Amino acid sequence: MDDDLLWNDLMNLPADPPVKRDICSLCKRPVVVCFCDQLPSERLNPVCKIVLLQHPAEEKRPLHTATILSLALTSDKFIIFRGTKFPQSKHSGLHAILNSPDTVLVYPTSEAVDLNELPKVTDSSSLRYNLVLIDGTWPQAKTIYNKSKALHSLKQVKISTPRGSEFTIRTQPTDNCLSTLETAAEALAVLENKPTVKHDLLRPLSTMCSFQFSYGAVVHESKECRLKNHTYPKLIGKRLRKLLENTSTDRSYFTEIVENHNLVLNKS
Ligand SMILES: [Zn+2]
């Protein structure tokens, strides 16, 4: 009985009031993990425009990288539309962007050409790309693409990078998958031949990642890397297998991983 009373007393104790944390007015993150001093001193004003098609769930993620783009680029060079299908009537202006001959979709479909094959932007040319990116987890991005027929007819480009993502907080499906910010930074730097743009855009990301590590976040290696290191615990599903096969530059390398490590392909 005494135990019951004690338990009731404990249950009825008021909860501690929430601890108030100072929030940065720019990045909306707690000031102790604010990355704003790593943003370019002046907003970058590239020739091309970044057009982000963002899954609604992405906005709520604490580590989404679109915030860095919105704070680092001038407002006319970064446009964001939210939804799970594009375009919709609420997406004012997107229809015209998707119908522009200057618009390309940066998304790795089987028809996508390498970014380096696109004509570069030069001072004398009138090229002004609208670079459309899908922002979400890989399954979300795939669903958005499949549901958005208007994206299918766009010129599609992919980015081949020998290095993996530097954004190691969130697991990327393969070593050469990049976060939205890295993709935008790479595309702008290559098409406008300005490596400094990439450096300026990725500096806050690097700081954000180091905060996460110092606060105890686990380094998420890509599934490809974990397969290589025998640490991927599951059967390889059909979707992952297909993705690895499509994105691996050397098909025999994938086969070798599977065969040498006795991994089981899930055929279902
Ligand atoms: Zn901040």
Automatic annotation (TrEMBL):
Keywords: S-adenosyl-L-methionine, Transferase, tRNA processing
Top-level taxon of the source organism: Eukaryota
GO molecular function: tRNA-uridine aminocarboxypropyltransferase activity
GO BP, sorted A to Z: tRNA processing
PANTHER family in the cross-refs: TRNA-URIDINE AMINOCARBOXYPROPYLTRANSFERASE 2
Similarity comment: Belongs to the TDD superfamily. DTWD2 family.
Protein name: tRNA-uridine aminocarboxypropyltransferase
Organism: Parthenolecanium corni
High-level lineage: Eukaryota, Metazoa, Ecdysozoa, Arthropoda, Hexapoda
